[in-house]
C-alpha cells in the first residue's frame, strides 16, 4: 500500500492513530502521534484510514506514479492485512483459460527481514531443491512455472527460510515447512483472488507467520521461573532412568493427537499461547506416563501448521537422554507426526 505524508493511519498491534509525517524508507514511516512525538513504524503494522478526500488523492497518486498493470487488469489493492510471514503464491499464466494454463509459483517475503530460502519439491523418495535465494523485506520473487500436466507430481513443496537483518533486530526462529497442495484447487476460478503481494490474481498459502508464540509465553506470567526450572530438573532426573520394557506387545505402543479440538470441547477466545500451553502440558503428562509405564514407543500427532508446536515438542524430547525420535509414518500421518522410541 502506498502512503503519503499527511495520511491518517491506525496501528494494527496497539491502540491509537497518527499522521504520516516522514517516509523513512520503503518499509518504515515516521508517524506523529497525539502528543506530538514522531515514532518509526513498519508499514506492515499500519492501516490507512480512508475518507473521500483520501480516495480521490489515491487515484491521482496512482496516475502520477504510472502503475498501468493495476488499471489494465482492473485490480484493486486488497484491504486485508495479512500477518507478517513467508507465503507461497500460485497464479495461472492464462488467467482467462485456467483449465489449460500452466502455473507460476511465487515466494513472498511479507516481513521486515531479509529472507534466505530454499524451495524444494518432493520427488520419488525425497525432496529435490529447485531454487535458493535471498528476498528483500516486503518483496516477492518468481520461483518457477509448473506445467499443468505435471501438477500431480509437483504438489508437495518444502520451504526452508532464515530471517536476518543488517540492523539491530529481534531473533526469529528459522522455518522448515512442508506444503501439500491438492492440484484440483488450481482448476477452480474462485481459488484465485486479488491480493496486495503481486499483481496477478493468486492462490496465497501462508507458509509460516513470524512473531508467533515466544517461549516465555508458555508459562503464566505470575509463575516463578526458578520453580519451573527446579520442577523440570527434578522431572528429568527421575524420568531419564532407563527401564526395561514389560513386553514387546503392541499394547505398549501409544498414540496421542495434540490438535486442540481433540483436547478441548470449547477453545474459542483462547490465544495461540494459551492453546500451545495446553497442548504441551498434555504431551508432557502423556510422555511421563509412557516412560514410567515402560512403553516402547509414543507417536505424537502435532500436525504441520506453522511448525511451532512441532518445534516445542521436539525440544522437549531432545532434553531426555533415553529417547530417540524420527518422523512418523508418512503413509499414515503425512508430515504431521513424530514417533518417539523409549529406550
Count helical runs: 7
Q: How confident is the prediction overall: mean pLDDT?
A: 76
Count structural domains.
3
Compute the separation of the termini in Å. 55 Å
Q: SSE string, helix = H, strand = E?
A: EEEEEHHEEEEEEEEHEHHEHEHE
Shape: globular
Could you walk me through the main structural features you see in this protein, from its secondary elements to its overall organization?
This protein has 343 residues and is an alpha+beta fold. It has 3 domains: 8-66, SH3 type barrels, CATH 2.30.30; 77-209, Smr-associated-like (Immunoglobulin-like), CATH 2.60.40.1600; 215-342, Ribosomal Protein S8, Chain: A, domain 1, CATH 3.30.1370.110. Helices cover 22% and strands 32% of the residues. The chain contains 7 helices and 17 strands. The chain is globular and about 65 Å long.
List keywords for this structure.
Ribosomal Protein S8, Chain: A, domain 1, 343 residues, globular, 7 helices, alpha+beta, Immunoglobulin-like
SSE topology:
Layout: E1 8-11, E2 17-23, E3 28-32, E4 38-42, E5 46-48, H1 52-65, H2 68-72, E6 85-92, E7 103-110, E8 114-123, E9 126-135, E10 139-146, E11 156-164, E12 175-180, E13 203-209, H3 225-239, E14 253-257, H4 260-263, H5 272-292, E15 297-301, H6 308-318, E16 323-327, H7 330-333, E17 337-342
Parallel strand pairs: 14-15
Antiparallel strand pairs: 1-2, 1-5, 2-3, 3-4, 6-7, 6-13, 7-10, 8-9, 8-11, 11-12, 15-17, 16-17
